[in-house]
Specification:
The structure holds two protein chains of two kinds. By secondary structure, chain A is an all-beta fold. Chain A contains no helices and eleven strands. In chain A, strands 2, 4, 5, 6, 9, 10 and 11 form a seven-stranded mixed beta sheet that branches. In chain A, strands 1-3-8-7 form a four-stranded antiparallel beta sheet, with no helix packed on it. Chain B is mainly β. Chain B has no helices and eleven strands. In chain B, the strands form two sheets. In chain B, strands 2, 4, 5, 6, 9, 10 and 11 form a seven-stranded mixed beta sheet that branches. The termini of chain B are far apart. The model of chain B has no long low-confidence stretch (mean pLDDT 88). The chains are: A mainly beta, B mainly beta. The interface between A and B is medium-sized, with 26 and 27 residues.
Chain lengths: 113, 110
Amino acid sequence: EAQVTQNPRYLITVTGKKLTVTCSQNMNHEYMSWYRQDPGLGLRQIYYSMNVEVTDKGDVPEGYKVSRKEKRNFPLILESPSPNQTSLYFCASSLVGEGREQFFGPGTRLTVL
Amino acid sequence: QQPVQSPQAVILREGEDAVINCSSSKALYSVHWYRQKHGEAPVFLMILLKGGEQKGHEKISASFNEKKQQSSLYLTASQLSYSGTYFCGTETKTGNQFYFGTGTSLTVIP
């Protein structure tokens, strides 16, 4: 089954404790992206990757890191989480090129205390 | 560059029609529409490309006015399953960066 998976689905942590949210896709997509969703603000892009070893900042990259060492994986790293990073996070993947459909993972709800 | 959607929320009875609008202050190269049900991930509905090409959902239609930098999503004869939050999205000219609107909550009641 074609899908995007994320882990963990739920995470409660404390300020400053480094964490990683994993994302994996099995559709051989070149493009992968991370979004955060907050009430009233919609989905905002954090980082995206056009292919292996090619990553770039989205609209709200501060406080986040990513890496793309393999085509299928695109982990999101919060090296020193803060309460304002409490949010619902979605990973997505797609082919490259104009007008392609993005496939979203199930989401990770993160709470930083 | 985040697109603006209107209305923010709408409540319909089954069988009624709705229109959701999306506008941008920047040039639009394509418009994407997604629907998100409560507690779930966004799901693709439709893409509209410059030049009039559309790809997507059979029972939902949309328009794309390139000159006005606007798009509208038309939901006709709404069903209970149409309930959810609808997002429009736009991409940069290179197709790399993506911007979603703030969403329109649509509730269909019996």
